[in-house]
Amino acid sequence: MKIRIKKLNEKAVTPAYGSEFAAGADLYACTEGDTEIKPHTTAVIPTGIALELPMGYAGLIYARSGLATKKGLAPANKVGVVDCDYRGEVKVALHNHSETVQSVSAGERIAQIVIAPYITAEFEETEELSCTVRGAGGFGSTGTK
């Protein structure tokens, strides 16, 4: 599948896969210099690119495991969603979960994007839902005893 990208900044880096079978392509910071993120705060980091995703696909932005475990930096919204009709700059809201100031450098890999198909549901209001063994059991209700 080909995904068209537009570089909005000459310093922008094209997303790239780290290995032959990687599901996510790395997204890179497109900043003028280092960006400091204080403990327990969030900074919006530009990538300098816009995408043209095919209809029926979305770009799901996930944390990079190395950045999350080594620096405590991960997307603030856990998973970002780039809709197929969005043509603006892809940005990543990185949250610093650590107790120390962290720095993101220009050109650093900050997140990964997975291109995935989705289904648009038609929601239908009803008075009753079908019965199941689980029923309305919620958080932790299916665990072992």
Tell me what you see in this structure.
By secondary structure, the protein is mostly beta strands. It is built from one helix and eleven strands; from the N terminus they run ββββββαβββββ. It has one helix spanning 65-71; strands at 4-7, 16-17, 25-28, 35-37, 42-52, 57-62, 73-75, 80-82, 89-96, 102-104, 109-117. The strands form three sheets. The protein has a five-stranded antiparallel β-sheet, with no helix packed on it. The termini are far apart. The model has no long low-confidence stretch (mean pLDDT 95).
Helix fraction? under 10%
Unreliable stretches (pLDDT < 50, length at least 5) are none
In terms of structural class, how would the helical and strand content be classed? mainly beta
Number of helical segments with 4 or more residues:
1
Mean pLDDT metric: 95
- What is the molecular shape? globular
The proportion of residues in beta strands is 35-45%
The radius of gyration computed from the alpha-carbon positions, rounded to a whole number of angstroms, is: 19 Å
The oligomeric state of the chains shown is single chain
Q: Main beta sheet, described? A: 5 strands, antiparallel
SSE pattern, N- to C-terminal? EEEEEEHEEEEE
Strands of the widest sheet, in order across it, are 2-3-11-6-8
Instruction: Give me the count of strands.
Output: 11
